[in-house]
Specification:
By secondary structure, the protein is α+β, with helices and mostly antiparallel strands. The protein has helices spanning about 15-20, 50-65, and strands at about 1-10, 35-40, 80-85, 90-100.
């Protein structure tokens, strides 16, 4: 089964970065609108490992034909909205089945 993963929103919290984060040279490269295809629940090439860790269980479940998470959470029962775990620059990803 093919699952499309689309970065739909990227936030940034400079106030939190200034207060808590050590300066880093290379942060998140993900751009809004960027998309990847997962085949049979596998991590797509080029996917941020941290973001994949946040969404892996949902992608794998959708690839197995499961869905309807949390009893009707999403309008499309074969989808999920998942955010990566970066508290300074979180990215929201729309995960959806595109083919069986």
């Amino acid at each position: 089964m093919k699952i499309r993963i689309t970065a739909v929103k990227k936030a940034s919290y400079p106030d939190l970065m200034a207060k808590y984060e050590n300066p880093i040279e290379h942060a998140c490269d993900v751009q809004e609108g960027q998309a990847w295809i997962s085949i049979d629940g596998k991590c797509p090439e080029g996917m941020c490992p941290s973001a994949w860790g946040s969404m892996r269980e949902f992608v794998e479940a959708l690839a197995r034909g499961e869905g309807n998470f949390y009893d009707g959470w999403m309008k499309n029962p074969q989808s999920a909205m998942i955010s990566c775990n970066d508290g300074f620059r979180p990215v929201s990803f729309y995960v959806e089945v595109i083919s069986v």
